[in-house]
Amino acid sequence: MRSLSLLLLSASCALILSLAYAHPPEGVWKKKLTWKEDWVQVWKTVKKEAWETKWKKVSVPIWKEVKVPVWKEEQVPDWKIVKKPKIEEREVPAWKEVKVADWKKITKPIWVPTKVAVWKEIQVPIWKEVQVPFWKEIQVPVWKEVQVADWKQMFEPQWVKMGIPGEKFLGKDHEGWEYTSHDLWRKKLIWKPVWKKVWRTEKKQEWKTEKKQEWRTEKKQEWKTEKVQEWKQDKKLEWKDEWIQVWKTVKKQIWIKEKRETWIEEKVQIWRTEKRQVWATEKRQAWKDEWQSVNVPVWKEVKVQEWKKVWKPVWEKVWVPVSHGHSHGWD
Known about the structure:
2 strands; disordered C terminus; DUF4816; two-stranded antiparallel sheet; 331 residues; mainly beta; Golgin subfamily A member 6-like protein 25; signal
């Protein structure tokens, strides 16, 4: 490897020395227009999807405090007149009862069989009128759209031949002869009325069957409780007169001390319940308008960088050798 490196170094030195002492070829330097490839940065408009914030009006529920009247019970003082008992002592005449023998006519009860009228409850059928619903078919008018034929006047363009009276100059030929024409025809655009069949929409009344709920009277059997009179075997209490010996109580007047209860009026304080109207706070639901932001997609134009390939003119310096034998006069 070392010998190969020395050999290459010696060959390079020999080549450099030969080029240095060699005679250069004869020629001139000239400018040559060439096109050189180049890349330039340009801006390109592209559409990019973005999100735009918009405001939307929505109704949201809120709780609103309102004042409502309510009745509140409260205790208020009051005066009430009451009566209280009072005991008083006094002497009053009284009758004292004593027993004396006597004949007394008494009435003795006896039972006598008899019949008495009694009322008995029984169930009897009755007819009661009730209202029951039923469906009745009725005819109601409805409007239906139908297509009806109609004739409509329209105008269509049409070309017609129209004569031009008199002589008309057309030109001259190369010898000077004039050319004229008589009674020429020309086309004229006119609008010709035509009648075309068209369809128009009209409303036609029809009848539609619908069910309507009505009420009718029907008889319904029910049971009613009534009372009927019957006769029942019973016992009747009667009184019979009899005379028996009894001890009769007679009254003898005496004086005794007696305690008498009297009533005196007195005012006492009491509490009574009264209702008083007050205002209470109550929450009620209401609706409030608010603005809510929403994101909607939009297309937005943006500028992006891009490289574009271009060709630029460049003047290059080239060596053109000159030959002594032949000259083309380019210099």
